[in-house]
């Protein structure tokens, strides 16, 4: 070991590092504008008075903008937690808006585990002066519990990829989850439910944010991160025992063993520190003008393209490095398979807030990082400042994207809006208008993440049960939440709904599920949609850590028929690779209407198509879609009478909505589609090649 390093420490890696051979810690923290930094180590018995302090000397402990030191464990044998004091210049005019407070206890941005003292106080962090004993602390790395890596290589599904969006706590917090109480709402609670996920058929879970967030911030969803490296302590079976990493890894290992990918919803566009009235926990007190975009306005110094009070300064090289380091950590150490980036369009914003679509540095770095090559990257391609970059507009060439156009078209069409046939064809086909596969662009349909609902809006059941939001409990006078294309099927809400309305709602839910699984691209749906989970009309329960948001597993039994339909539609999609392709359908699809030609007129609500599976060694699939509130007789415009067998008819009640057997043959060349229904017919490759029913029977004799 270099003698200088033993004395002065090293600038890399950032954070706290345990050097077992030296029995010492290396500490490294970035602060370009900081003028005085003090390291604070705490024992478990005294969280107010440090058991060891180290004053950094810029002549010895600073390399460029990075401060570093080396502390032998013999100098602080009782140390368990750590933090910093950082002091620097006062706020300056223009864009150097500093927020230094020499008395504040500051969390290391690279802490891998965060501890909250019993007297932790959000309010104390919002006030000037000391918050000793009330501030979050980093746990020293030698105190963390690890049981080894879950897997060395990520999973990678192809045509069978089906994403299930899930909130860690909400998935198993409800008493009806039927797991041990200690595991309610935890990483290990998910492990208990893996057999259910396998039975449903999903092949990837997308976890809403698991980064540590402020437990007093009234934010259940977790989209207000405090730190980019530490798993949220509340998702551990013992939040104070520093087992978060270990239990997260156990979850990853169990999911991988079941063949399920794990994708993290990550928030690198803002933090929980908010605007100039918000708390100072970490970034703001360490080097505010490095970590956050500033406005130049002293009355509102933080730029707000995230809608949450601040915007991470991702154009800054130090911030970009912290993002890359975080992604590498979750990829290599925690072994996740991919990331979904919240408000990813903020990555395209330059220091002054303008948009750079040519080569935004952070997107370029993520896309070219060798260690992230095999990671699945998914963008939410917009931000709260008005940027909307869906499809080829988003500069991440290999990034998948949440397709909001798909969501809007499907919501409108299924509820009965007219004039959408052309747009519906585009969405089912894979949205090549947004993801063109011409020679210049060569986009592919799996880049389109198709969804009808997500955490950010109504559940699928509420989408067909409410026309008015019921968000009063959120505390914003019912003015919050997205405006979606819902329909209550003739009755607002649940109370007193007639049986005919209940059945229509089930039928509409099945229509959504059916079309989602029949679309080229990557399907995603939110937890509980498969058994009609409700939030009682609240379409923005970001702060509702209660039964409004917790998954009610009793509904699985109440709506077993809907679960059965979802389960079989997922299986059907996976059994027919002709649906989900790496390329667009092109000449393999033929479009029809109720009559032979597609009706693209404004009043039209009918569409049919035949997807030929020969090029994929698959069967042919004929789909009939009637969004009108009256029955329509459709011609079957390919094959002969008796060629097709019926697989799905959402106009019929369970179990006749989905046939497991293949002998329900359609012996005429028309099909009576019920009002608001989707029908799926199947023709085997033998029939396509010219052999008909009697020939196949003779071949089998």
UniProtKB/TrEMBL annotation:
Pfam families: Alpha-amylase, CBM_48, ISOA1-3_C
Domain Glycosyl hydrolase family 13 catalytic: 165-573
Family membership noted in the UniProt record: Belongs to the glycosyl hydrolase 13 family.
Top-level lineage group: Bacteria
SUPFAM superfamilies, per the entry: (Trans)glycosidases, E set domains, Glycosyl hydrolase domain
Entry's Gene Ontology BP terms: carbohydrate metabolic process
Organism expressing this protein natively: Stieleria marina
Enzyme class of the recorded protein, top EC level: hydrolase
Protein name: Glycogen debranching enzyme
Keyword Cell wall biogenesis/degradation belongs to the record: no
GO molecular function: isoamylase activity
